[in-house]
Design brief:
With about 160 residues, the chain is of the alpha+beta class. Helices cover about 40% and strands about 25% of the residues. The chain has three helices and seven strands; from the N terminus they run αβββββααββ. The strands form two sheets. A five-stranded antiparallel β-sheet has the order 3-2-1-4-5, with helices on one face. A two-stranded antiparallel ribbon has the order 6-7. Helix 1 runs antiparallel to helix 3 (about 125-150).
């Protein structure tokens, strides 16, 4: 009987931990997704040029030298101002990165052109996507623990201790 209550307490603790982590990750994903949607509703599209990279530089197998780096982009706003900004995230491996001098699609706020973002999955969708995916996975795991417990093996005839 003591073992059964200890297992039940362990199951409750594990379920609570998984649910808490899942809720945190889903909340982070929703926050960044809302931020992205609000930014895109107010932003205007444009095109910039990669003028350099901030971050670690090394040469990869392809001969490119921006592995793990963050692009620095220059564009001209509709008001004619030249704006330079650093993208929010870089990409690795280097073959995903544009070369210096390559054009890139961007979005920026017309009233505050210094608030600009480079288009792309890593720039815009990675954090919300990964957070929502793993948060949902953890919530599903918490539900599984609640229904079936931890440390039980499934046999053809059902669950056993």
């Amino acid at each position: 009987m003591a073992t059964r209550s200890r297992n039940k307490a362990s199951d409750t603790s594990m379920m609570s931990l998984l649910a808490l982590l899942g809720i945190i990750l889903v909340s982070i994903g929703i926050y960044f997704l809302i931020d992205l949607v609000q930014f895109r509703q107010q932003a205007v599209p444009g095109q910039g040029i990669v003028i350099g990279y901030n971050g670690e530089r090394s040469t990869g197998a392809t001969g490119r030298t921006m592995i793990g780096s963050v692009p620095v982009i220059r564009f001209t706003s509709k008001q004619g101002r030249s704006i330079t900004f650093t993208a929010q995230a870089g990409e690795s491996p280097s073959w995903f990165l544009p070369d210096i001098g390559d054009p890139v699609d961007i979005h920026y706020l017309p009233n505050s052109p210094n608030e600009a973002r480079m288009d792309g999955f890593v720039q815009n969708g990675l954090i919300p996507g990964v957070s929502l995916f793993f948060g949902t996975l953890l919530l599903y795991s918490a539900l599984h623990v609640k229904r079936n417990g931890v440390g039980r093996q499934q046999t053809w005839s059902g669950w056993t201790d």
